[in-house]
Amino acid sequence: MNLLTSQLTKLTLEAYEDVQQTKPVGLVWATQLNPTELTFSRKNTYPETKAAGADKPESAYTGGEPDEASLELLLDGTGVVDEPGSIKGRLDGLLKFASYHGEEHQPYYVHAHWGPFTFRGVITSADVTYKLFDRGGEPLRATVKLSLKEVLSREEIAAIEKRSSPDLFQTWLVRDGERLDAIAAQVYGDAAYWRPLARANRLANPRGLVTGQVLVLPPVAAR
Predict the structure, then answer these.
(1) What is the pLDDT of residues 56-70, one digit of tens each?
(2) N or C: which end of the chain has fewer CB within 10 A?
(3) CATH number of the domain that residue 97 is part of
(4) To the nearest whole number, what is the mean pLDDT of the chain?
(5) What is the rounded distance in angstroms from the CA atom of residue 87 to the CA atom of residue 143?
(6) In total, how many domains does the chain have?
(7) Which N-terminal stretch is annotated as signal sequence (predicted)?
(8) How many CB atoms lie within 10 A of CB 212?
(9) pLDDT of residue 161
């Protein structure tokens, strides 16, 4: 790798008006420094019921909960990373993603992506901790802990809930070295359909396919 010409991939946030994320608002924010840790959570619901006279309760699967992700970002204006100065502008730009917007009557939908990591949803919290100030009180360093929650469209939810229907869905057994975009190109005739594939299978890392993994192939209108 040529270290002089290679570029560092930075975690980037993009804002959208709609849950399908087809209408970008032109708001894009990239990190100064990539996070050193990223937490991803997926939960299923198994409520317990105990029959009369039984020693132990029974658990039955009733559905999944929205995926969640959290990460901590460092904003630095001391001159170590970028030109020295207040971080207020960068911080305000980041907080726009979690702020109420009158036209949408809610905060924007967010697409966070960094290398193989991609997450679509909303920011549920942004906790700012100021670490350093200049003599005039301007912030020079802060950490921001972002919490994100997955938000799916009605069509995506319906596709996930009906994934077992044999007349609507097919399956694909992943072979060694296969990529999601290549599978989409073969099945749908268009590599761009890797996104519906990733969403239908709730893949946190679309590049992390495992040999022997079974994928659900959802119907696509343009198939």
Answers:
(1) 777 777 778 899 999
(2) N
(3) 2.40.30
(4) 84
(5) 11
(6) 2
(7) none
(8) 9
(9) 64
